[in-house]
Amino acid sequence: SLGAASQEQDTSRDAAGLRSMSSVTIPPPACMLRPLEAPLRYLFGPGPSNVPPRVLAAGGRPIIGHLHPEMYEIMNDIKKGIQYAFQTENNMTISMSGSGHAAMECAVFNTVEPGESVLVAINGIWGERVAEIAERMGANVHRMVKTPGGYFTNKEIEQAMQKHKPVLFFLTHGESSAGLCHPIDGIGDICRKHDCLFLVDTVASLGAAPIFMDKQNIDILYTGSQKALNAPPGTAPISFNDRACHKMFNRKTKPVSYLFDMTHLSNYWGCDGKPARAYHHTGPVSGFFALRESLAILAERVKRYTSTFSVILQKKYTDLRLPSVTTIAIPKGYDWREMLAYIMKHHQMEMTGGLGPSIGMVMRIGLMGYNCEKSNADMALHALADALKNCRKSKA
Ligand SMILES: *Cc1c(COP(=O)(O)O)cnc(C)c1O
């Protein structure tokens, strides 16, 4: 009968269900059956920094759809917040769905075509990273190299530009591996004179050292969320001026990345003048909530632009100090790894060693945005003094 047939079907479906259950050969991992543990730490390294409760709360709000009109409003607010933070009127101002590296790749991928000449100033790790990114997409990369903490004169930059005729020149404003804040004035004008785009990385410096995108003739500027902006990692503001837009929207080849293609991203962020925004990718909704809140805090307050810490520390590693990340010479006779481990263990405080070319040369202490308080500087100094007292000192 019909009833019997359907019953038979049901049992066979059950059997199939059982079979698929019994085929789970990897048991649930024990760690997944324990609650999440994330300790409270003082994040006094070069990032991420501690996130203020207000920003955490914004990120913890119930999410909405990435294509809901309310989300577009929030994205429009973020755009205005970035324009303020960058001091720019550029319409082409968005946040990447990704960390600072996403902005680095977006800038290079969209404005450079394979075979074109790119000039990169390297005085720490970040220039080297951008040089590699540009090489990977087939650019003809020219490096200007200084030891970490060194800086480039405008004359040196202009000479290299005359020689290599780049379409793009990259400079790091806040070199967080070297603790240097590079002078910017005049370089944008040199780039214009030589028909070259000026790309500046302010991941470690935005909100800690002044930058004026429009006034300083910077063509492309980006930052990250998790340093002086004190938002969680995972979003990265970026802005392109008309010169940069002209170059990137008149290319012969498509950018190598679909995810970072500005023709799509400009539509997603409502910057392309089209009435409708189309689905391109799902933006990090919670990350955007938090980023909006951190930009709101920046807009509300006139931030202190100097770090108390840089002033207190005596051992100078460079003259153009980056306020947000202070590099200190490793005290003679001490093992920096042991000191950092001691400070983490006994003070729940992150400080870091060098990065890239500055490894073994310095320790790095970052007091960024919300963390930049005298009480925190005192606490960091106390932890350092304690480490000096209790870590091994070699006789040599
Ligand atoms: C941290 C940092 C980056 C990279 O940012 P991520 O968010 O880690 O990808 C780039 N440039 C500078 C100067 C930085 O300090």
CATH class of the largest domain, please?
A: Alpha Beta
Helix content: 25-40%
Shape: globular
Q: What is the CATH architecture term of the largest domain?
A: 3-Layer(aba) Sandwich
Give the bound compounds: pyridoxal-5'-phosphate
The end-to-end distance, rounded to whole angstroms, is 95 Å
Structural class: alpha/beta
Compressed to H and E, one letter per element, the order equals HEHHEHEHEHEEEHEEEHHHHEHEEEH
Strand order of the largest sheet: 2-10-9-8-5-3-4
Percent of residues in beta strands = 5-15%
Report the major sheet.
7 strands, mixed
User: Within the CATH hierarchy, at the fold level, what is the topology of the largest domain?
Assistant: Aspartate Aminotransferase, domain 2
- Specify Rg, calculated over alpha carbons: 25 Å
- Average pLDDT: 92
Give the helix tally. Answer: 13
Count the E strands: 14
CATH superfamily of the largest domain: Type I PLP-dependent aspartate aminotransferase-like (Major domain)
In the predicted model, the low-confidence regions spanning at least 5 consecutive residues are 311-318
The structural domain count equals 2
InterPro entries: Aminotrans_V_dom, Aminotrans_V_PyrdxlP_BS, PyrdxlP-dep_Trfase, PyrdxlP-dep_Trfase_major, PyrdxlP-dep_Trfase_small, SP_NH2Trfase/AEP_transaminase
Protein name: Alanine--glyoxylate aminotransferase
Catalytic activity: glyoxylate + L-alanine = glycine + pyruvate; L-serine + pyruvate = 3-hydroxypyruvate + L-alanine
Region (Disordered): 1-21
